[in-house]
Write a structure and sequence with these properties.
Oligomer: heterodimer
CATH superfamily of the largest domain in chain B: P-loop containing nucleotide triphosphate hydrolases
CATH class of the largest domain in chain B: Alpha Beta
CATH architecture of the largest domain in chain A: 3-Layer(aba) Sandwich
Structural class of chain B: alpha/beta
Shape of chain A: globular
Number of strands of chain A: 9
Largest sheet of chain A: 6 strands, mixed
Strand order of the largest sheet of chain B: 2-5-8-1-9
Radius of gyration of chain B: 24 Å
Order of helices and strands of chain B: HHHEHEHEHHEHEHEEEHEHHHHHH
Strand content of chain A: 5-15%
Chain lengths: 382, 310
């Protein structure tokens, strides 16, 4: 038995390392748990090893597919003792998966990193300038401005209670006070519901037609995520990608890099209706969109069926507290919502804003924070 | 750590020593688990780890805790999470009314001893109301209880941090009383519908299992097992129809719970065979959005019946 144990442990550690490299959060504590689970099961059975690993090393549904793939490579491609070889193979299968963003955007990122601090552009001019016309230096300035935006959502009543001069009776504190006055509750205490900011959900279109704006808008989402408000970030391309986790790094360049790696469909076509549907199906209806402020950043070009978009926007509108649509093209003189997707979505949008320059993003932030005052809506979704 | 873990081991149902046996026992108790789930439950019991179950509504997450409590012959203590849940609803609360009464009684009898002692007396066990988490830790009995923490994702993150503490130490400190530690840690089952991502730190303490919708074959078995009144032919038709519904792109695809409700409704109507009329009459028990119902009744009704094998 003991001579069998060592290779199992080695293999488990190597497997854990492999998973970590692939992005599954299988820390050493989990690996220990994995070996413990193996002790209870039959190491020689494929199924037992598979489940022991899957139960202990994975913690998200997104991990599962990747786990299956890596499991096959690791345990079925090689014996227990030679854990080194398969690692190489895996790195290949991974790079296949994560398509790098197109060269153009990557270069832009490089330039951003080497940014020179030139402040020739007065902030006021910058605020009104269209993002599409920005120089790299101006972007650097812009990112600094973004850090100051306040994106905390409109307050809503929470179920938590706070002490208040009037409201519901608070027997606990009343009694505490009564002890001091010989058991006589001279002063009654009260509590009332605390207010909490609503969750904010940002959906950014990254299709080809949005290319001049999408990076800046993702940067905007990053500013929101790191400011600590309750925020979820998604990008809409040919498919839906959740990038909240990728954007949590405080270093903007690193966050952008991680987000870029997660996004596999930069500047492709959009099937706006389908991706919005995917969002509502997988996240929105379950609770993420309920009572939240949902912001869609898109020009409304949809290559799919606009009927789908209209229907999904209606669903989203019913779930969300408020739906805000930000369209960078709106600012163009004589703009009319002619893009078919835009026209289909508009009836289900509460606020329609432009998003082509910093001033408009400031306006967006104000709308998010004070959404209640602009449009009063009773209760929740009907 | 390892000592604590050893203490937790061995909470398996009598006569079960490996995973396939457990699966068989679950089946005898009308719960059909696939290999993954039965291994998950087996390991949770054996390693004394909380089990974290995620999946669509109605795939049988809560049921796992219920069947476990039957198998282990131990009470099920359930904590339903909701937004704003706090210590007073989850762990303990002082019984203020009784405390006040106590003060009044003391006054009436003229007991005016020293204040400190009197105050101490007010904060003793008899004035404490225990809520589910404390109940689970204080439980006395031959085997530890099953603690179901249902829909963790509905509670807010402050509460999650608090759960983390309890699930790692299985102890709670009440400032006025001291620490209450579980003699034998409860068998903990956490469920989540994934309305938001539960924090990694909490998941890391647990074994993670994602429950999917079952395939047709297993769903037929489940229906047969849970609704004994349904004849095999009907069970087969219902299961296939539900599989079809799931592929129909509905807002809320039916879960196993809906399949069972539907079958029960059909059996109550004395159905032996699915037909359009019956589907129309009972659709509300399986499809619960108006748009979904329209879609099913409109374009796909025929398809549905055809798939049922009439």
């Amino acid at each position: 038995m003991p001579q069998q144990k060592a290779p199992v442990l080695q293999a488990a550690v190597a497997f854990g390392r492999l998973l970590r490299r692939a992005g599954i959060a299988a820390g050493p504590d989990r690996v220990v748990e994995f070996t413990r689970a193996l002790e209870e099961l039959d190491v020689t059975r494929r199924e037992d090893v598979y489940w022991a690993g899957r139960l202990t090393l994975c913690s998200r549904r997104e991990d599962l597919d990747l786990y299956d793939k890596l499991f096959r490579v690791f345990w079925e491609g090689a014996g227990l003792t030679q854990a080194r070889k398969p690692k190489m193979r895996v790195s290949i299968s991974l790079s296949e998966d994560s398509v790098q963003p197109p060269k153009k955007t990557a270069e832009k990122n490089d330039q951003g990193e080497e940014m020179v601090r030139l402040r020739y552009s007065p902030v006021d001019v910058l605020r009104k300038k269209d993002f599409a016309l920005y120089t790299p230096e101006e972007f650097a300035e812009l990112h600094k401005l973004m850090a100051n935006l306040d994106l905390s959502g409109t307050p809503r009543r929470s179920r938590r209670l706070d002490p208040a001069p009037r409201g519901r009776h608070d027997p606990r504190m009343t009694l505490r006070g009564a002890l001091r006055t010989g058991g006589e509750p001279l002063r009654h205490r009260f509590r009332k519901p605390r207010s909490r900011p609503r969750r904010l959900v940002l959906l950014c279109d990254i299709s080809g037609s949005m290319a001049p704006y999408s990076r800046t808008l993702i940067r905007f989402m990053h500013a929101g995520v790191v400011s600590g408000v309750q925020l979820e970030a998604f990008v809409l391309g040919t498919r839906l990608t959740r990038i909240t986790r990728e954007l949590t790094s405080r270093d903007p360049d690193r966050a952008m890099k991680e987000a870029s790696e997660a996004i596999r469909d930069w500047s492709g076509g959009t099937r706006l209706g389908d991706t919005v549907k995917e969002f509502v199906d997988r996240w929105g209806q379950r609770g993420m969109a309920r009572g939240s402020v949902v912001v869609i950043l898109s020009d409304g070009w949809d290559r799919g069926d606009v009927e789908v978009l209209a229907e999904q926007m209606m669903r989203l509108h019913r779930l969300a507290y408020k739906v805000i649509w930000v369209n960078p093209l709106k600012a163009a003189p004589g703009y009319q919502p002619l893009a078919r997707g835009m026209a289909a979505a508009l009836p289900h949008v509460d606020v329609f804003l432009s998003g082509h320059n910093f001033e408009s993003l400031e306006k967006l932030a104000r709308t998010i924070t004070g959404a209640a005052s602009e449009k009063q809506r009773g209760g929740g979704p009907g | 750590m390892s000592e604590a873990v050893d203490g937790r081991r061995g909470a398996l149902p009598p006569g079960v020593s490996h995973s396939p046996q457990l699966r068989e026992r679950l089946r005898e108790d009308s719960y059909l688990a696939d290999e993954g789930l039965s291994t998950a439950i087996f390991l949770a019991l054996k390693l004394g780890r909380p089990l974290f179950l995620e999946g669509e509504a109605g795939v049988g997450k809560t049921e796992v805790a219920k069947v476990l409590s039957r198998l282990l012959d131990t009470p099920l203590i359930r904590l339903q999470c909701y937004e704003g849940i706090d210590v007073h609803q989850a762990v303990y609360e002082w019984d203020y009314a009784r405390q006040l009464l106590h003060i009044r009684t003391a006054e009436a009898f003229g007991e005016k001893e020293d204040r400190q002692r009197f105050e101490d007396e007010l904060y003793t066990r008899q004035f404490l109301v225990s809520r589910p988490l404390l109940q689970a830790l204080e439980h006395q009995g031959p085997s530890p209880p099953v603690l179901l923490i249902d829909e963790v994702d509905r509670a807010d993150d402050e509460f999650e941090a608090f759960l983390l503490e309890i699930l790692s130490d299985f102890a709670i400190t009440i400032p006025e009383l001291g620490t209450v530690a579980a003699e034998r840690p409860p068998v903990a089952v956490l469920t989540s519908n994934r309305t938001r991502e539960v924090h990694d730190a909490l998941k890391r303490r647990c074994l993670y299992f994602y429950i999917d919708h079952p395939d047709v074959k297993r769903e037929i078995e489940i229906v047969r097992l849970r609704v004994p009144g349904a004849e095999e032919h009907l069970a087969r038709q219902v299961a296939k129809a539900v599989q079809n519904l799931r592929s129909m792109n509905l807002y809320k695809p039916p879960g196993v719970a809906e399949t069972l409700d539907w079958t029960e409704a059909l059996v109550a109507l004395g159905a032996k065979e699915l037909d359009e009329g019956l589907i129309e009459a009972t659709l509300g028990s399986v499809v619960k959005y108006r748009e979904d119902q329209q879609r099913v009744l409109g374009e796909s009704l025929r398809l549905l019946v055809a798939s049922g094998g009439i």
